[in-house]
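pinging the channel bc i need a second pair of eyes. not urgent but kinda urgent?? the chain im working w is below, pasted from the shared doc
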Amino acid sequence: MTTPPAPTAPTALTTSAPAISAHGLRKSYGDKAVLDGIDLSIPEGSVFALLGPNGAGKTTTVQILSTLVAPDAGQARIAGHDLALRPEGVRSAIGVTGQFSAVDNLLTAEENLMLMADLRHLPRPEGRRRATGLLHRFDLTEAARKPVSTFSGGMRRKLDLAMTLVGDPRIIFLDEPTTGLDPRSRRTMWEIIRGLVVEDGVTVFLTTQYLEEADQLADRIAVLDQGRLVAEGTSDELKRLIPGGHIRLRFATTGELDTAARHFGAAARDPEELTLRIPSDGSIPTLRAVLDVLDGAAVQAESLTVHTPDLDDVFLTLTGHSTPGNATEMAR
């Protein structure tokens, strides 16, 4: 009789710790509560966008997580380092690009990068190697020895981000990184940010006043209002929170429209356009259910389009404010 092999202990499933985690962060200035107990958990190698009206607390959140401002209460861990106990560890793992350019206009692009390398205490050869590599990566090689005062806004912001990367950070805080840029320069910055995540595995914490920016870049989005997180999820998840989504069916004939309308009690019928508008949350199960009803009614739509609220609708509904537009955040 063969003895069965001894059972082996189950292998533990390992999951990496979040790049950024926070619990109960609070901050007040006088009697004004800027942050009123926020919780965050941001995976490594992802883009997290924080949206909110002016004065909601976005910049204060970045300042706390990057060790520039101490919270009044709460805990946080950044790249495995406790924010309160090991701020030097946090600073060694992060890079910060603020709302306003930090480059020195009197220096060249190369000199700005070398200055940052010196501040990071890099050996001179290593600093020069990194500066050369970043100038190439950001398409600034031809402008390397030109004074920054001659740069366009887009070139200046690229250099600003390049300076943040001199220390090879694993987590980057971008506070309104494309404010004031023209659409083409903004999209160039988006491509650079995507490359940092996809190619380098960097984690990006982004605050932005451009809702399209969050929609394009972020894996997850949180909406901050009056110091509290009022919603968090993917772009699609947030859009499904807001009423107004619908499926629009167009038919070839009035007879087909009438037949379909009898099977969708809540649908809005437009006889002139030969369309039927059916309330929908935009999910695949809802779409499948609509197609099943059409199939059961033996009627075929000429076209089908799914309409969901955009982030502007989400922002307005959740915060009670109009979208930020192009206004620069002046308050904390």
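so Residues 11 and 123 are 43 Å apart (CA to CA). and The chain is about 35% helix and 25% strand. — does that match what u expected or am i reading it wrong
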